[in-house]
Amino acid sequence: MCRLYIKRVLMDKKKIMVVDDEPDIREILQFNLENAGYAVESVASAEMALEICEQDIDLILLDVMMEGMSGFKMAEILRKEKKSQIPIIFLTARSAENDLLTGFSAGGDDYIAKPFSINEVLARVKAVLKRSNMPKQEKEQQQIVLGKLRIDVARKMVYVEDNAVVLPKKELEILTLLASHPGRIYSREEMINELWEDAPYVLDRTVDVHIARIRSKLGVCKGYLTNRSGYGYSMNAEE
């Protein structure tokens, strides 16, 4: 009975593949992930990871900048050629907006900038695994779809015609609020009360500036965001 119990516990462990060409990083991640109850496969290159990556892997922690194949390229191969949906969290010293877009476009589920804290890594791993195990219906409930615009609420990402758009926190909050209630007109005062609770001196002009910035990033969907003069702003997908 004891042997059967031990075997079942081992089988129930989530298995994480760590792909990084820095031995110290691999060692730190493996030690802490195993202490947190995960099974860990540690790999030094993207090429090696692609050779041994199997369906029993529940999540990949993937460095971006490595000798040989980059993490972005490995993710692209997994998604497009191998048709794998294993969740991927990128680890990288790069955190510019273009790098974030590249990572999400390559099929990444999250992005952690180096240097990172182990607590942050463990929290992100737990969150991504939780999302990946959600029933399809629950996942769909975390998506707001309006015409060619899609907001992934859990990942804090916006997609226009499936192209990723990175918005700062406040712009994303405004867009999510409006898109969650298509057709409803929100006055500037209502948005300030809803989204700037801890900043009592925000001006109407601040809302207008944020709206203009959002609209400039929505491309073909910019017309969804409209202004009713004297009333406020609303979101509607164009027919």
Rg calc: 21 Å
Number of strands: 11
- Identify low-pLDDT runs: 4-11
Strand content: 15-25%
State the order of secondary-structure elements, H for helix, E for strand. Answer: HEHEHEHEHEHHEEEEHHHEE
C-alpha termini separation? 64 Å
Count of alpha/pi helices: 10
Give the helix proportion (percent range).
Answer: 40-55%
Q: What strand order characterises the main sheet?
A: 2-1-3-4-5
Question: Would you write up a description of this structure?
Answer:
The structure is a single chain. The chain has 239 residues and is an alpha/beta fold. Helices cover 44% and strands 20% of the residues. The protein has 10 helices and 11 strands. The chain has helices at 2-12, 23-35, 46-52, 71-81, 97-105, 118-132, 136-141, 169-180, 188-195, 204-217, and strands at 15-19, 39-43, 59-63, 88-92, 110-113, 143-146, 149-152, 157-160, 163-165, 225-228, 232-235. Strands 2-1-3-4-5 form a 5-stranded parallel beta sheet, sandwiched between helices. Helix 5 links the parallel strand 4 and strand 5. Helix 8 crosses helix 10 (204-217). The longest helix has 15 residues, at 118-132. The radius of gyration is 21 Å and the shape is elongated.
